[in-house]
Amino acid sequence: DEAQLEAGFQATIDRKDRIEPRDWMPDAYRRTLVRQVAQHAHSEIIGMQPEGSWIGRAPSLRRKAILLAKVQDEAGHGLYLYSATETLGVSRDELTEMLISGRQKYSSIFNYPALSYADVGTIGWLVDGAAICNQVPLCRTSFGPYGRAMIRICKEESFHQRQGYELLMTMMRGTDEQRAMVQESVNRFWKPALMMFGPPDAESANTEQSMAWGIKTHTNDELRARFIEMTAPQAEALGVTLPDNELDWDEFWTVVKGGGPCNEQRIAHRKQAWDDGAWVREAAAAFAGLDTSSPRG
Ligand code: ACO
């Protein structure tokens, strides 16, 4: 019966084994995973926009090639994560509709604009750095497909973080204007990057249950503190000053609820891309329905 199934499920989690798609799971566990993994997938895809806007304006062929590869990686991460979400019984079409209609969230950080080329470096260093700090523990999350996707994603995120740091280091060796551009960019991104970890533990509605289920293994504040500690010596080596760590949680909730600087633009762009791609999805579905096994098929 249900109680026995639930006890077996919890025992699997408690001995740090994985829950797989065909295993029994409580509805609330499934719902929480769909919420978190879909939000994560949407963040990867929406996250292509701020940096993508710099591909056509990169200062050299080398920088352009790096940025192009990085933004493509983010698309790949979105696809791994949508696939992991699909194993829970929702389709990618449904998830995309929920994103576009505002019923599912994506990370607050991608509602801030990339205003200067230094932002490409800062996003790699701080935003992808924060993402790694949050995602390395998720490699051991209790749901198998999510944890396995995280392993591949973290490897690529490490490259992203390093390319960002290297870009900033190059600018810091340049002119006074370039150094000022880096500092200005870090000033704008530091607090939004710290907010990526989610609200303070006391206001985090989901943490306790998600930790009991082994979906999360650390609280939001624990990971935020770890990130600050990791980043301080990197800032020193780079020669930039990090702003203080006082966060404005009203700003965070405004951005999460759709009122950030770029929310409307991000969703409008995503919707446009989804609508423009309709013919590709239709053609792929029609092709899948064809008998291609015969030479004339
Ligand atoms: N941006 C937008 N919404 C957020 C953010 C954020 N940075 N942080 C928290 N929220 C939302 C939560 O989704 C939740 O709302 P919901 O219940 O309607 O879904 C609410 O704020 C309260 O937060 P928590 O209870 O703390 O939520 P949760 O336990 O899910 O923790 C966290 C949030 C830490 C972001 C978690 O979901 C997580 O680890 N997700 C995976 C990582 C991820 O999504 N990264 C995306 C950015 S990194 C990148 O793509 C490069």
UniProtKB/TrEMBL annotation:
A molecular function (GO) held by this record is:
phenylacetyl-CoA 1,2-epoxidase activity
* One Gene Ontology term from the biological process aspect of the record: phenylacetate catabolic process
GO cellular component, as recorded: cytosol
* Superkingdom of origin organism: Bacteria
Question: Entry's NCBIfam families?
Answer: PA_CoA_Oxy1 (TIGR02156)
- Specify the protein name: 1,2-phenylacetyl-CoA epoxidase subunit A
Query: What species does this protein belong to?
Result: Nocardioides silvaticus
